[in-house]
Amino acid sequence: MRGMGSPSGSAALTRAVLVSTDATAGTLFSPTIDPIEVPLSKEWGGLLPLRQRVPVACDPADPEKYWLIDPPSRTAPREGVPGVEAPRAAGAPPPGPAPIELQIPAPTVGDYLQLLSGGAPSRLAEVPKAPLLQAFALRIEQLSLHEHERIARLARTWVEPSLIDRIRAVGGGMEYFAWQLEAPLQRLPRGVDGWRVLVLDATYVALMRAMDADAEMPPDTPAVFRRLVKSIAKPPSSADIQAMLRPFVTVCGPIPTFDVPPIDEPEAPYAARDEIPVASPAAQADTSYNTAGHASPRPAAEAPARGAVTMPRARPRWWQRKSSPSIDRLTWDAAIERHNDVLQAYVAYETDPHLILAYPAILDVDVASTQDFHRRSAHASALRTDTGPHDSDHAQAFLEAVTAMQSAWAVAERFARRTGRDYLGAEEARGFSRAAGLLRHAESADGVEAENYRRTAAEIMRAHVVPRVSANAVRSLERVVRGELEASPPRRPRPSS
Question: How far apart are the first and last CA of the chain?
């Protein structure tokens, strides 16, 4: 049983993580459930991004019985798409928690810490050294979209952008970042300015710095950098750490060993509390319904007196919110650049008629080296996405595919340049040569004479050239036959013969 609704009997259910391996299957696991392969629903299996970690509620005795906490949202939200949330108007309150979230609330950080202390494995993609940070990352993995938006809305009001800067700052223009949260945060919306994810990143960094920040650096961090950070980093104050943790604690519950009061101390349960969407104290006084449309169990805050000075709502400025790119992002961007270089080099051969007729092997799929290039190019293009890598494995796989594509391109181009038309049969080679000569004559002629040269070249190319080269190359030749050769110079030197 696999669905997006809510189970009828939920007493024995527990929270877990589902990672899709393809459109039909995935792996389900938790600290108390060993990884098990489970089928995905045909209705929404294809909507789950590959290898992305999503929270579910499942039956520990039969993990194939599971329910998604949130609907899949691989595509952009649109009206009328099953399982995809429709867009809300700007400023509208967030939707209330789903029934499954109310029935099966996520464990708190303390619950996860107790499991880890008993020897349970975290099964995180990146495992922090401190058990408390592992427990925090596990709770982030179980964040629902409702909880995530609640934290972001609270932080918009109660967290100054300068506080996040102080929490993440090392000194010398460097910043800490929560590399251990990259996998859990991939499925969560970033927001227009990245604020939603940045708040969770800074919350983790606040915990990390309150413990041992040096020990939680990535394993491949050079020792000299560790010593530099230790010498210049200024630890944030306890007040700053407490302020940074408050939105998370308000929505997700207390963090062991940290005495952090929730914002306005709501009385509802931590996992999915019924509280007024926080925008400002004044807004609280004017709002009597929570995000689910039920009366709030706590009294509204008093409105500020007329003429009282209120703190303006803090919004991060885009140049302050830009975080340092991750290793995965740098790897991905470098691979994208290399991929584009190869594609542009290939396009040069497809669009210059002189290169088409001089080096046909690069466009001839009957040539083994060209076949290998196209096969590796298709593999690299299949891994490329507009939104970046899903995880470290995806980034590395794309880089390896592009590297293989580059190597195949070098072999194919070298063969084409070395052989020219020699690999063709004698009659075909003469046809290519005659067509190239006629087009050169057409360029130096005009009027009727140029048209006659192009017409004769077209007849020869239909017989000998078109069957050998790609469809794009044929279109380029058709344009030059019609006298539409672009005046811009070719990207590569023209052959002399």
Answer: 68
